[in-house]
Design goal:
This protein has 10 helices and 20 strands. With 333 residues, the chain is an alpha+beta fold. Strand 9 and strand 10 form a beta hairpin. Helix 7 runs antiparallel to helix 8. The chain is globular, with a radius of gyration of 19 Å. The N terminus is likely disordered. Bound molecules: adenosine monophosphate and magnesium ion.
Amino acid sequence: MFKREIAIICIFSMLLLLASCGAGESVRQIYVMDSVASIRLIPKNEAAADLICKELYDMDNVLSAYDGEVYDINRNGEGKVSRHTEALLRSSLELYEKTNGAFSPLLGSVIDLWGIGSKNYIPSQDEKENAVAASDIGNVAIEGDVIRLSGGARLSFGAVAKGYASDVIKSVLEEQEVEGAVISLGGNVYVHGKKPDGELWRVAIRDPRGGENSWLGTLLLSDRFVISSGDYERYFEQSGVRYHHIMDPETGSPAQSDLAAVAVICESGVVGDAYSTALYVMGKEKALSFWREGEGFELVLVGRDGVVTVTEGVADAFAPESGKGYSYETARR
Ligand code: AMP
Ligand code: MG
């Protein structure tokens, strides 16, 4: 059998990833952070693959809102935390400022109130207002490695934990001098170095209105994160309304966005993860202004109107998939 010439890393699709595995590679697939993590190192480096899995299990143990130290702080109101939780909260507070609060690490009360994907509850206006008030960013304080919550606030790192974890993996890859790697954490992809033939990696952008293995275009990249958010990942429908998992911190309800999905392409996992969530909340116009005013990241925005907007920094790297019913445009600075 010939090895596939071009490996397609489909967001959310482990099958395609595994189809392109070869003998000179280290491959791992583990369940962490409520999703499948897939690790592929080329050439083979079993020690680095083991180290990456260990780091992932360690982070999973502390960052989950359902057990571990973040869970304990949400229950007790304060606690001493590990280096991961401390670093993630500090980064999250900066990203809260950068996104004008569209991303917030303190939305636990709002997220738990709805329980999208679990209890699927539609709260009253009063309940939403109380949860929004509890989520005020002034209700968290960090001193050294001690975090304190007040006013009913609860931490939630669901929007950034995987991005943060991919940054940790990226540093392991660098320290271990791994030449090429593809890491996917629940659909957030990091491509490291080049393919053995010296070519770039091809990363697929999921079609938010297609199935899990359907993509609307691909990007040729190296040393980049591709991090996606959208209303297709977790939701329930009632009376024809889709209640999805990305919350507008101002209203305490699922964001009424004109976007179906956002993919952020950048060199930092935690930044890409916070931005993908925040830009979905902002909607297309504000997301493009945010891109024009910012630096160090590029976007693929999928509008609910079927228009795919690719920012100019990745326009040449992007190849649309034909026959998907989308139209494509390039955004310029
Ligand atoms: P992502 O898939 O990275 O966009 O993360 C979505 C998850 O982050 C949700 O399932 C919630 O747990 C949490 N979340 C939802 N809305 C926000 C928000 N505006 N800011 C921070 N976290 C959020
Ligand atoms: Mg995110």
